[in-house]
Model the fold of this input.
Amino acid sequence: MLEELLRCRHVEHRQLCPRRPWVVCARSLERNLRIRNGDAMVSEDFRKQALGYGLTTAHILYRRPDHRWLLQSFVWQNYDLFPEFPELRRFLTFWMKKLDGPLHSVRVAHCS
Done:
C-alpha cells in the first residue's frame, strides 16, 4: 500500500501540480502512515522521509552573549523540506526571539 501511495501520479493530481505531483498526494500518504502496525505507530522520521523530507544539517556560528567578539559553534540536525526548510526557519526564529547569542552565520547541508 505504501508503494502505491509513493508512486501516486493520478491525472487530476498532475493537473493540480504538474511539476510536483507527489505534493498533492502528501496528505493522503500522511493519513495512511498513521495506520497502526500492531501497537507501534510508524516512526516520525520514517513518516517524514516518505513525505519527501531529507536530513538537513545546519552549522550555526553565533556570538557569545557575554563576549561579543567570540564566536561559538552549534550543529542542528533534523528532517526538513528542500528548498523552503520550514523546520530550520522555525528553529532560527526561536533562536532569534528567545536566545541571547546573536547569529553570525548559518551553513546548511541537505540530503534527500
